[in-house]
Amino acid sequence: MKKWIGLLLAMIFTLSFGSIANAHVTVYPKEAVQGSYEKFTVRVPTEKEVPTVKVEIKIPIDVDITKFEPKAGWKYDIVKDASGKITSVVWTAMDAGLGPTEFGEFNMQGKVADSTTTIAWKAYQTYKDGTVVEWTGAPGSDKPASVTSVTPKAAGTAKNSLTAGGELPLPTSGVHEKSILLLVYLSIILSFLAILAVIISLVKQKKRKKTDLANDERYTVFHSMQ
C-alpha cells in the first residue's frame, strides 16, 4: 500500500507543480489593442540557485516604448536606433539581484503599432555565475519568447490603457496570476482528497480481508469439531 501511496504522491506533485517549475520571463498584458497605449510588465523569476543580476528586453518594431518605471536596487540603460526609437532596454542589479526564491517585475510604457497582430518579446536573463538564458524561442519551445496578441480596435474608438487623467490603471496581470494560483491550489486540495479516499478504500479492503480470513478460520475450526 505504501508503494501505491508514494506513486500517487509523485504523480500529484508532478501535475500540480510542473507548470510552476517551468515559469519563464513573461511580458504582460498578454493581449493589447492596435494603436493603444499600454503599460507592459516584464515578470522575471529566478530559476537557478544563483541570483538574476541582469535582464535585457529587445523592443520589437511592433511597439514604441518611451518610458520606464524606476525600480529600487536596479538601474536601466536603453539603446536607440538612428531614428531615435528605443530598440532594447537592460536592467542591471546594483545589489544582490533576484535570489533563488524570488521574482521581479519591470515596468515600461509605450504605444502599440496600428497594424500589428502580435508582439514577440525576446528576453535575455543573466545570472550571477555568468549564465545567460535566452528567452527567444517559438511558442511551445523550451525557452519561448513571451508573446502579446494584438487585436484590431473597434471602429470609431481610440482604446488605450490610460485613464482620462493620463495615468495608468492598476495592473491586471496580478489578478490573472492569482486566478492561476487559485486553480493550482484547488487542484492540489482535490488531489489530496482523492489520495485520502484511495487510502481509506485500501484500509477498508485490508480490514475486510482480515475479517473474511478470521471468519474462514472459525468456520474451519467449527466444522473440524463436528
CATH topology of the domain at 23-170: Immunoglobulin-like
CATH architecture of the domain at 23-170: Sandwich
CATH class of the domain at 23-170: Mainly Beta
Mean pLDDT: 80
What is the helix content? 25-40%
Order of helices and strands: HEEEEEEEEEEEEH
CATH superfamily of the domain at 23-170: Uncharacterised protein YcnI-like PF07987, DUF1775
Distance between the termini: 39 Å
Tally of DSSP helical segments: 2
Label the overall shape. Answer: elongated
Largest sheet: 5 strands, antiparallel
Strand content: 25-35%
Helix-and-strand structural type: alpha+beta
In the predicted model, the low-confidence regions spanning at least 5 consecutive residues are: 7-21
Give the beta-strand count.
12
Keywords:
single chain, 226 residues, alpha+beta, Immunoglobulin-like, 4-stranded antiparallel β-sheet, 32% helix, 32% strand
How does this model look, in words?
By secondary structure, this protein is of the alpha+beta class. It contains 2 helices and 12 strands. The chain has helices at residues 2-21, 173-224, and strands at 26-28, 31-33, 37-45, 52-58, 63-68, 74-80, 86-93, 103-112, 118-121, 123-127, 132-135, 146-151.
